[in-house]
Amino acid sequence: MSELLVAEGISARYRVDADEPPVRAVDDVSIVLHEGESLGIAGESGCGKSTLASVLSLNVHPPLTVTSGRLELAGHRLSLTEPGWRRQAEAMRGKVVALLPQGAMNVLNPTRRVSDFVYDVLQSHMPGISRKEAVERAAERFEQLALPRRALDTYPHQLSGGMRQRVVAVVSTLLDPAVLIADEPTSALDVSSQRALLKLMAGLLERRIIRGIVFITHELALLRAVTHRVAIMYAGQVVEVGPTEDVLFRSAHPYTKALMDATIVLETGTRRQRIETIGGAPPSLVAPPPGCRFHPRCPVAMPICSRETPPVVTVGAGRTAACWWVAERMQQAAAPAGAGAAGGAGPGAGAGEAEAVGEGHDTRAASQ
Ligand SMILES: Nc1ncnc2c1ncn2[C@@H]1O[C@H](COP(=O)(O)OP(=O)(O)O)[C@@H](O)[C@H]1O
Ligand code: SF4
Ligand SMILES: [Mg+2]
Fold first, then answer.
1. Which parts of the chain sit beneath pLDDT 50?
2. Beta strands in the chain (DSSP E)
3. From the CB of 234, is ligand 2 less than 6 Å away?
4. pLDDT tens for each residue of 32-89
5. What pTM did the predictor assign?
6. For the chain, what are the domain ranges?
7. Which atom of ligand 1 sits closest to the CA of residue 26?
8. Which CATH fold would you assign to the domain 3-227?
């Protein structure tokens, strides 16, 4: 499968006050989105999901700055720290990558009709377009995606929250961006509006209006329903990546495992709801803990975990986890019979039940 978005070594920070140390909201994150794919990003509140969404969608504005990283978006390469990247980003925003931000429905101006919003969006990218052409283009797209054409003539308050969210999603993709970054698009929507939005997003992909989605959510049921693969973030970093079902139900990383254990099953196999029961709290991103950032909360932490950054270990086909304990388990599994048994058996907890036995570990690989 070809790569549609490649992010390598992205670090981004907020510097609110010049005298204060910055908030290291995203630190050395590497991810890949393949052609036709929906990639989920999940993790506790404050772990850097929205910041990553801002960077991937090229919406980086003060106090946020990118301190390192490289992006490739539908064949366009950007080095995020080189002069001139902002100009390049400006030209690509909306056309190559679009953001559906958290609370997107609120971007509609209450005093202007939806058609005015459409015109503003299209005109900013296509200065010569007439109002009539812009509205006609939107009307065709609305019909294609089963949204009522008459919504274009309304003011936002005349639409339900769910419809406003769908309208913004469709207008954000009018320029056929290759990639849509959707940041918790269904939060604050009732169940039927959630379903309608998910259907709409599936329609965008099926019709190849967009070619891939990064779908940020902390709702695990949605990850299962919508995404092919998922990346789990903790304290500004990606800790595990892989096919959604594998990551959620055969978690390798102790944090993913803890996140899943903090989930209650409401209806067998289908509906899940997060409850906050992971012991301790996420660390400050101003001064995150050294070594593995999860070590103060990790039930299987080892001495090395508080000293050194964990390696990114391949734990199965298309699966990686950044963890010393997983690395040790993999090494033991790969060792010839009789050798390495004294290497210290890992704790009995379930993480790393990786069906990854026999696969090597790759400290170079970006999480992908
Ligand atoms: N505008 C901002 N100024 C300073 N810090 C911010 C700002 N926005 C987010 N942060 C901080 O960056 C970190 C990551 O936040 P965010 O990306 O919003 O996480 P998530 O979307 O996973 O909840 C948090 O510590 C948050 O407090
Ligand atoms: S590296 Fe160590 S502290 Fe971090 S998750 Fe793995 S075992 Fe736990
Ligand atoms: Mg967020």
1. 264-276, 340-368
2. 3-14, 23-34, 38-42, 64-73, 76-79, 97-100, 179-183, 212-216, 229-234, 237-243, 263-267, 271-274, 312-316, 319-322
3. no
4. 999 999 999 999 999 999 999 999 999 999 999 999 999 999 999 999 888 888 899 9
5. 0.89
6. 3-227, 265-365
7. 14
8. Rossmann fold (3.40.50)
